[in-house]
Amino acid sequence: METGQKRRRMSRAMLFLILFGVVSLFSDMTHEGASSIRGAYLALMGASAGVIGFVSGLGELIGYSMRYVFGKLTDRTRKYWPMTILGYVLDVLAVPALALVGERGWVWACLLLVIQRMGKAIKKPAKDTIMSFAASQEGAGRSFGLQELLDQIGAFLGPVLLYLVMLLRTRGDTFRTYSLCFAVLAVPGAITLVLLLFTRHKFPNPERFEPEPRQYIPFRMKRSFVLYIAGISCFAFGFIDYSLIIMHVSRVYTGLAAGLAETAALVTEGTLPLLYAGAMLVDAVAALVFGYLYDRIGVKALMISTLLSSVFAVFVFSMDSVPMLLIGVALWGVGMGAQESVLKAVVTSIVPKDSRATGYGVFECSFGVFWFLGSWLMGILYDVSIPAMAAVSVAAQLAAIPLYFLSSRCAQRGQ
After folding, report:
1. Rounded to 10 degrees, what is the CA torsion of 80, 83, 84, 90?
2. At the N or C end, where does the chain have fewer CB atoms within 10 A?
3. pTM (2 decimals)?
4. Is residue 169 within a helix (H) or strand (E), and if so which, with residue range?
5. More confident of the two residues 139 and 147
6. CA atoms within a 13 Å half-sphere pointing along the CA-CB vector of 261
7. What percent of the chain has a predicted confidence (pLDDT) above 70?
8. Between the CA of residue 167 and those of 156, 161, 181, what are the distances in Å?
9. Phi/psi of residue 319, each to 5°?
């Protein structure tokens, strides 16, 4: 009887993971579809590389640093669903609002992007925490890998949807075409909210998936967690935001830079969303593969993925070749896949249930601060020296690997 109940509970946990994954699928269709043209859109409105790097980093800074605040609030109130729903509403509504800015309205566009990141800041600690409750039954690496797989299916479909919009729209200038793309993204945004409310109705108390601890264990910064935070901070500092990548591609590979006209037929403004879609497919596969690997070999999976992705900037920015660009974007996708699956799974194994939202808040706050600093620096270096930018990116990511190793050793010793 007890075995049968356990099986049903595990089955409900997986159903919850899949339902929430479908919510994330449509959510990612919305904001990752926007990400596929965001950098080019800002550049079209007159924003410089430095401004794009700064705004991208500022959005990540706000989106990540505020997660500590909302993580603490979530742990204190246990209002997992209200925080998640509020965050999703801001996240998916800010994207179609980009269609309303004017041709020189890059300041307003930047403000909307910051609002969108604030929505993610509100929802992420609560969302990741309730996901971790179900993941405790199904395996953290596999569960977050499955979640990221569904996320990235949406992240693939979003850019493809925009590609079709661009393909079908034969009239009008580029700016109006981009505005139409953002307006179309209101459809998956609305579906996201409907499915989210359905999931909330179906699973009103997801915290019941994970048994309550026998005693309250307050959150404290163990040595293993500090080393892990240092590692993910190095990774975040060196991991270049896609807005800068797409701006570079739109300048160099679409004929905006002299002497590369022969590449324009392969990478055009109309195919830019497909480039991002390809990166999201790689992201999805990498998340699932490295998620399963994490359940088997632990933090070594994260070390391998970081080593693979660390050189993406060399291929993207230092080689004016379409095949090398595609390799670089694929390696960038590997890094994103590990970031969204294994990085979260490690937190689940280090931080106890009662303070896990706070743990996720600390994790994401640190990640965002260093993403901001790195994005800002990379944007400045892009205008000064592209090889220097690539070198800093590679070095920072490689520096994370020994920190992951030391964190794992400390965790094994209970430190």
Report:
1. 180
2. N
3. 0.70
4. none
5. 147
6. 2
7. 86
8. 17, 10, 11
9. -130, 110
